[in-house]
Specification:
- With 962 residues, the protein is mainly alpha-helical.
- Helix content is 65%, strand content 3%.
- It has six domains: 205 residues, Rossmann fold; 65 residues; 172 residues, no CATH class; 144 residues, no CATH class; 220 residues, Serine Threonine Protein Phosphatase 5, Tetratricopeptide repeat; 52 residues, Arc Repressor Mutant, subunit A (Orthogonal Bundle).
- Helix 8 links the parallel strand 3 and strand 4.
- The two termini are 51 Å apart.
Length: 962
């Protein structure tokens, strides 16, 4: 029904069940019993979705929802999608949230939004976007989640109403679709109305949302003949006879909007509502919509028609002055036109105009002749800019104009793209720039537009980005700096698309043409970086020598030099040079600063420098750097691939330190982020490989196997050298499953790939350690030789963890008294390292060998130590192994002791209790009303304070697992 009708009548016909659902949801939201009395029930949110075709009464129903919500003291957030505003990024999000935040002074707004200010502020139109890299879409959604969650909690109970969701912009719709399931855990009722047959392709997740959230969309049905009769008599009086009412129902098919408009036409014509006049209803009904509506509009005069066209072009929330400017009318003429359109029930409102119904707006817009419509959009764009509303507001109109080589149009579209890109809407920026390219831009600006278009497509369409950037390089570029930026971006997207050879070749070719020595050095540093990841690099040793010579000459005076020095530190780690050399270069790289979120730089080198410390047995330093780096990512709003890398590799650091439960929580958080980025991407490979390796360490071979199958983890492996190396992890999995021949073949293949490249540090690439174990079944002598070569390489590197791990592998494949000697030396080295899990393995292995050698007292000491260490690490499989060995020695395994938990905060204890009861991280997040990253941090603190893993929390906290 139209808004005018909504205001004048409250009656809703045949919507009793829908209103009952609303009342029930509002009662649960406000914590009231069904009888209206206050009760102990916890306020609970919900999702209600009302679906139906145009005119079926969704808008009227949602207006009643807003009225009843306000009457119950609820805070109401309201928005409406617009057919003309679908391409305006965050249009719906701004309608919802801006009114509740826009009145704040800047200082107050900064204090309210905290670290999210610079991330969500531009998207919501609350502040200008800052220079630098924009937030990724996951980060922006996380920020919007935070804002809406805090509003819901602070201003509870809250009702969010979204009408015409099928016309909502993609950015807002995808955000709300992802957020909606959380409504049930908040004091928030989310009510949505939409036309199911008009939901766009980008709303597929929204289409299935009600079922996933535990509700089904309520399909609104047409009114029955009896309901239409009551509606007619309410408007026209009791004298409306049965035949007249039946004909009203027949010609409107029970559509509420058409029935209301029909009664208005009857009243305007002075028609007596009896059977005698019923034959006129069909013609009157035709005038309500389509061609009949347009004919009625045209009878109002040329100026009024033009004003209506201008309003249709502008869409929703129409400024009368702006509509007059677009229509080319004076203020008085425009006011008369607005009065005429209000009288004809086409427009409603005063200070802000609206069409009485979206059906009317659509009919008027589609009736505008094509050429006139294009001209009006062009005029609207000019008027919007002239009113100071900015390029982003004008862009949607420019998108409807015909290409004409207009420089002004190109300028405005590029400016709009910059605004939307920095606000976190790269898809909208890409559309604007693609349209600017068709204008076309001036010849000398074409390369710049192609570069900007490539940057806008970087995260969503990497293949398209490559095409745009290569096209830019083929253009005559007069600005050398622009060419350099194109090259850097092109090499980056090629590398991230697993096309490392092309990235390296591009940089090599361009560096030869660079006249500036500093530019050439930057390109060389980028090439060194991508070559370090290439599995198919033709001559890695030669590249290492060049890198060594270059790094030794540099002082680290700028970021490029520090990147080169950082790459030298990583190269020394891979090659197994003495650890102190790698650490020396790592410290040099950090001396002048090495941020993780530098403009126009990747985060790879800072991560490699941080990992250098980890492999050299200084994981505390690594975690310091990761904490700062992840904070950089979060402050930039990077919650996609960047944050996934951060969490995944931090999980690997925890794994290396033997904190397996924390490692699993971190890697699962990283994997959830990686899944949003997409399967087959490097970040996804990292996460899956790390998860499989952690599960194997925890003794959960079956789960590791299922994980590998679920994510198709196996050959063919990425062209990039990853850490942990995916092929080596896959070989470990085969070995753990008892497939020794297959494991040996896979691990030997990894060795043939890595060894010629000079990658010989068994701390980083332990392929020899696992290969020796696999070979021991069929070729024991070769297995010993393989393991001893790994020991020699580990001794050259010098990190105690590397030596201890290699010695344990050598002991496993050796025989006789050598096994005990090797294991004793392994324990000695590992006790001086942070590798707690490796130490636990070595202690249990040594205890087992001592038991078999008839030395029970020594065996017991090492087995008990190994058991305690395994429990602390969360290595469940190793715990069982140690207990079995103790039982075989006739010893009673120690019971898990209860640990001190008084230092836990209330929220940490809550997270720990829920985890002990089997809740997953995302379920804990929902119950505590926090995001998953916060859950990871809470559990990390718990494991650190309690000193046990998930399996030990039940005993430590004294909770039920029910």
């Amino acid at each position: 029904m139209g808004q005018r009708s909504v205001r004048s009548r409250r009656t809703l016909f045949e919507r009793e069940s829908e209103l009952a659902s609303v009342e029930e949801a509002l009662s649960e939201l406000t914590g009231l019993r069904k009888d209206g009395s206050e009760g102990p029930e916890r306020p609970r949110g919900a999702l209600l979705a009302f679906a139906g075709r145009a005119g079926i009464g969704k808008t009227t129903l949602l207006a009643e929802v807003r009225r009843r919500s306000a009457a119950k003291g609820c805070t109401v957030l309201s928005a409406r999608g617009g057919e003309q505003e679908q391409g305006v990024a965050f249009h719906v999000a701004r309608q919802l949230l801006q009114p509740h935040l826009a009145g704040f002074a800047e200082a107050e707004l900064r204090a309210s939004l905290g670290s999210w200010y610079a991330i969500v502020g531009p998207a919501l139109g609350l502040c200008a976007a800052s220079e630098g890299a924009p937030p990724d879409q996951q980060g922006l959604r996380a920020g919007l989640d935070w804002v809406l969650t805090h509003l819901a909690v602070q201003r509870a109970p809250m009702v969010l109403v979204l009408d015409d969701a099928h016309w909502a912009d993609p950015e807002s719709l995808s955000w709300l679709a992802a957020f909606a399931p959380r409504a049930e855990e908040l004091p928030l009722l989310l009510v949505v109305g939409y036309r199911p047959d008009e939901l766009p392709d980008h709303a597929e997740s929204f289409r299935v949302l009600p079922g996933r959230a535990g509700q089904r969309p309520v399909d609104l049905e047409p009114l029955s003949a009896a309901a239409v009769a009551r509606l007619v008599r309410e408007d026209l009086g009791a004298q409306a006879d049965d035949a007249f009412c039946r004909e009203c129902w027949a010609v409107t098919a029970g559509n509420p909007f058409e029935a209301v408009e029909l009664t208005a036409k009857v009243r305007d014509r002075g028609l007596v509502p009896t059977e005698a006049g019923a034959h006129l209803l069909r013609d009157l009904a035709a005038a309500v919509k389509g061609s009949g509506l347009i004919a009625r509009l045209e009878r109002l005069g040329t100026s009024t028609v033009r004003f209506a066209w201008a309003c249709a072009v502008l869409g929703t929330e129409i400024s009368p002055a702006l509509a007059a400017a677009v229509a080319g009318l004076g203020s008085e003429e425009a006011a008369d036109a607005a009065d005429a359109l209000r009288g004809a029930r086409i427009l409603t409102g005063a200070d802000t105009l609206e069409f009485v119904h979206p059906l009317v707006a659509t009919a008027v817009y589609r009736a505008i002749p094509g050429g006139v419509r294009v001209a009006l959009h062009g005029q609207a764009a000019w008027c919007v800019i002239n009113e100071g509303l900015g390029p982003s507001a004008a862009a949607r109109h420019l998108m409807e104009s015909h290409p004409d080589g207009d420089v002004w149009v190109v300028q405005q579209l590029r400016a709009a793209a910059r605004e939307t890109q920095r606000a976190g809407a790269p898809d909208a920026a890409r559309r604007y720039l693609a349209r600017a390219l068709r204008e076309p831009p001036p010849f000398e600006e074409r390369a710049a537009v192609l570069y900007e278009l490539g940057c806008a497509s970087l995260l969503t369409e990497p293949a398209t980005t490559v095409n745009h950037l290569r096209a830019a390089l083929e253009e005559p570029i007069t600005d050398p700096e622009l060419r350099h930026h194109v090259v850097y971006r092109l090499s980056q997207v090629l590398a991230h698309s697993d096309r490392l050879a092309e990235a390296s070749e591009t940089l090599a070719r361009e560096s030869r043409m660079a006249a500036d020595a500093r530019v050439r050095l930057r390109m060389q540093s980028e090439q060194f970086m991508w070559d370090a990841f290439r599995a198919d690099e033709p001559d890695s040793p030669a590249r290492s020598r060049r890198l060594t010579r270059l790094a030794d000459r540099l002082t680290g005076r700028d970021l490029t030099e520090r990147y080169v020095i950082g790459l030298r530190a990583w190269d020394a780690t891979l090659r197994g040079e003495p650890a102190h050399i790698a650490l020396e270069h790592a410290e040099r790289a950090l001396a002048g600063g090495l941020g993780w979120a530098e403009a126009d730089r990747g985060f790879e080198v800072p991560i490699l420098v941080a990992l250098t410390f980890m492999y050299a047995d200084r994981p505390g330093r690594t975690e310091e750097l990761f904490a700062a780096g992840i904070a950089d990512f979060e402050s930039q709003g990077w919650h996609g691939a960047h944050l996934s890398f951060g969490y995944t590799i931090l999980a690997y650091v925890r794994y290396r330190r033997g904190r397996l439960a924390e490692a699993e929580d971190f890697v699962r958080a990283g994997l959830r982020l990686a899944e949003r980025v997409g399967p087959g991407t490097p970040v996804h490979w990292y996460a899956v490989a790390t998860l499989v390796e952690i599960l194997l360490a925890r003794g959960r071979v079956d789960e590791a196997t299922r994980t590998a199958e679920e994510y198709a983890f196996g050959a063919p492996f990425p062209a990039a050298v990853t850490f942990p190396d995916a092929q080596i992890v896959y070989g470990q999995l085969l070995l753990a499953r008892g497939l020794t021949k297959e494991a040996a073949a896979e691990l030997a293949s990894a060795g043939r790939r890595l060894d010629p490249r000079g990658i010989r540090n068994p701390s980083w690439c332990p392929w020899q350690l696992h290969l020796a174990r696999a070979e021991s079944h069929d070729a024991p002598e070769r297995a010993v030789a393989t393991a001893l070569e790994a020991v020699q390489r580990a001794r050259q590197y010098g990190a105690p963890s590397a030596i201890g791990q290699a010695l344990r592998a050598a002991a496993e494949v050796s025989s006789g008294s050598n096994r005990v000697k090797l294991l004793e030396e392994s324990v000695s080295h590992l006790e001086r390292s942070p590798a707690a899990y490796e130490l636990a393995c070595a202690l249990v292995a040594l205890g087992t060998e001592l038991r078999r050698s008839g030395r029970p007292k020594e065996a017991a000491e090492h087995l008990y130590r190994g058991l305690d260490a395994a429990v602390q690490c969360g290595a469940d499989g190793l715990v069982e192994e140690a207990r079995d060995e103790l039982a075989a020695a006739g010893l009673r395994p120690r019971r898990l002791h209860s640990t001190e938990t008084d230092t836990l905060t209330a929220r940490e204890r809550a997270a720990a209790v829920l985890t002990a009861r089997g809740r997953t991280a995302d379920q804990v997040a929902e119950e505590l009303h926090v995001d998953e990253q916060s859950v990871v941090r809470l559990l990390s603190a718990v494991y650190r304070k309690v000193g046990t893993d998930r399996s030990g929390l039940v005993a430590a906290l004294g909770v039920s697992t029910g």
